[in-house]
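Researcher: Go.
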Amino acid sequence: MENLWILIQEYRNSEYEIFREFASLLVKYEDPIINSFIMVEKIGDGKIYNSRLSNGPIESMNRKAKDLKRLGRVFRNFEHFRNRFLYATRSAPILNAVNEYNTVLYLEESEDEL
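Model: Structure:
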């Protein structure tokens, strides 16, 4: 935070108007700027690591919803749109409730049944 205020003071004392305007912008958005450097612990790939806060994942979900809405103008049923969105946003979609814990067995037909 100290470094930010040192930077703001340097820009405020600049002879150029554009830097003085930028200093006022830094003052106006001081809290979001400082919050962008907050580190939090995250869990991923079985490890705990430090990372900065980001709204990127939420923005990605919003973008996917908008893209699907634009591409899926033919969806007249909300349930179909919802299911399509859930399918598109899952990293490993499960179709018909079948996953590695609930496998489907395909039995070969015997020659007698043919």
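Model: The chain has five helices and two strands.
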